[in-house]
Amino acid sequence: MAAVEDLSAGNQQDFAGRLAAHLGEAVEQLQSRTVVPLFWIGRVVVYGVLAAIIAIMIAILAVDAVVKLLDAYLFGNRVWITYLIVGGITLIAGWFAWRKAGKYRLDAADAKE
Predict the structure, then answer these.
(1) What is the separation, in whole angstroms, between the first and last Cα of the chain?
(2) pTM for the full model?
(3) Which residues, in sequence order, are CB contacts of 81 under 8 Å at separation 6+?
(4) pLDDT of 53-85, one tens digit each?
(5) Which of 72, 98, 71 has its CA nearest to residue 84?
(6) In whole angstroms, what separates CA 12 from the centre of its chain?
(7) How far apart are CA 34 and CA 24, in angstroms?
(8) Which of 60, 82, 105, 109 could form a disulfide with 70 if both were Cys (CB 3.0 to 4.6 A apart)?
(9) Residues 6+ apart with CB under 8 A from 82
(10) What letter does residue 73 receive in the DSSP assignment?
């Protein structure tokens, strides 16, 4: 009779081990489907914001350097000419971007109808 009790105790340990293994697999699967993508999205957001801040800083410093170089070496301290040139370049770049955005906005509006 002792052998029967040992056998049933072994089955209970085996059942507990299998249950723990299945629970461990379920937790790993849940983590791989939820937590891992959330960490990836978080990294993309953080690095994207950081890259945007750095790009804005570089753009501001580049425009400032161009204004100072044009003013000092090309136009001899007539800063209004420098502002006119930089403003014209900015205006043309903005006009070009607006035209491109308008094309995509119209395509999206046509798709909704």
Answers:
(1) 80
(2) 0.58
(3) 70, 75
(4) 999 999 999 989 988 998 888 888 888 998 999
(5) 71
(6) 50
(7) 15
(8) 82
(9) 67, 70, 71, 74, 75
(10) I
